Amino acid sequence: MEGPLLGWGRQEVDGWRKGPWTTQEDKLLIEHVRQHGEGRWNSVSKLAGLKRSGKSCRLRWVNYLRPDLKRGKITPQEESIIVQLHALWGNRWSTIARSLPGRTDNEIKNYWRTHFKKGKPSKNIERARARFLKQRREMMQQTQQQQEEQSLSGQLGGGEDQQNQDGGGGARAGTADVDDRGSAVVDDAVLAPTVVAAEAGQHHHQHDLIMHGDAMMEMDLIMCPMSCALLIHGAAARQQGGGTGSCCGSTASDEYGSSEEDGATWGSLWNLDGVVDDAGACALW
DNA sequence: AATGTAGTCAACCGCAGGCAT
DNA sequence: CATGCCTGCGGTTGACTACAT
C-alpha cells in the first residue's frame, strides 16, 4: 500500500506531500496523536516525520482517523436532524456536526450537497423544513408571549431561570409537544442543565443565530435540536421503561443500515404524524 | 459489453477568528 | 495595541464507483 494512489495531480509541492494519504502516513499520524494528543498540527509534520502540512494532518485526523468516528451511511434519524439543524443554522456544518456524534462537518456537508442541494427528495425535505420553520415561529411567538406575560405579572420572582425550570408547563420538560398536525415540536425548555453546560463553550456562536429565509429571529435560548432529540429519546425510553436512551449512536446506525433506501422509511420519517404518540413520546427512537 | 452520467467520498484552498508574543 | 501564527470553517475540486442507457 505504498504510494500507488497517484492521480491527485501534484504529489509534492514545496516539500509538502499532497493527495491521498497512505496507510503508512495514517499510522504515523495516529501514533503521534496517541502520544501527544490533538492540536499543534503544525508541529505534527516535524514530530511525526510526516511530509504533510498541519492543515492536512488535522483534516485527515478529524475527518477520517478519529477513533470516535461513526463510519457508515447517514441514518434517517441523522438525516432528519441534519435537515432541522440546517433549517436553523444554514451551512454551519461544524455546528451541525457537533450535534451528530461521530459525524464530521465534511461528511454532513457532502451529504447535504449530494442529497439536498440538487433536490433529490425535495418535496419531503422542503415540506419538513417548512413545517419545522413554521413550528419554530409559532414556538418562538409562544415563548415571547409567555415572557411578556411573566414580565407583566411580575409575580414570578424567580428570575430568568424560572422559565427553564418550569418549561411553560412543568410537565412538558423533557418532552415534545405535538402541534395540530401531530408533528413533534421540540421545546426549547427541554434543554437540560447538562446540555446547556455542554454547549456553554459555543454559546457565543449560537446566541445570535440567524434563521434562514423569512424566519429571522434571535435565539434567547441555546438551540440544539439534537440535544432536544436526545431528551425526547430519553423521555420516550423512560416512558417505555427502557431506561437508557441512546440517541443516534451506533445502534441506530446498525438498525437502519439496511433499510435507509427504503422509500417507506422516508415516508414515515417525514410524516411525523404517526411518529409521536399521544403521550408525546417519539416513536422514532 | 461499452459508454455516459450521477453519486459519493476524500482532500485542498482561501478566509476569518482567536491567541500568543 | 499591533502583528503574526495557528486553528477551524465553509466552499470547491478531483477521483472513484455505481447505475443507467
Could you explain how this protein is built, in words?
By secondary structure, the chain is mainly alpha-helical. The protein has 2 domains: 12-65, Arc Repressor Mutant, subunit A; 76-274, no CATH class. The chain has 13 helices and 4 strands. The chain has helices at residues 23-36, 41-48, 54-65, 76-89, 93-98, 105-117, 122-153, 161-166, 193-199, 203-206, 225-239, 250-256, 263-270; strands at residues 12-13, 16-17, 176-178, 184-186. The strands form 2 sheets. It has a two-stranded antiparallel sheet. A two-stranded antiparallel sheet has the order 3-4. A hairpin with a 5-residue loop joins strand 3 (176-178) and strand 4. The longest helix has 32 residues, at 122-153. 29% of the residues are buried. The structure holds a DNA duplex (21 and 21 nucleotides). Residues 17-65, 66-116 form the Myb-like domain. Its main location: nucleus.
Q: Report the end-to-end length measured between terminal Cα atoms.
A: 41 Å
Order of helices and strands: EEHHHHHHHHEEHHHHH
The strands making up the biggest β-sheet line up spatially as 1-2
Q: What coarse outline follows from CA principal-axis ratios?
A: elongated
Q: What is the number of strand segments?
A: 4
Secondary structural class = mainly alpha
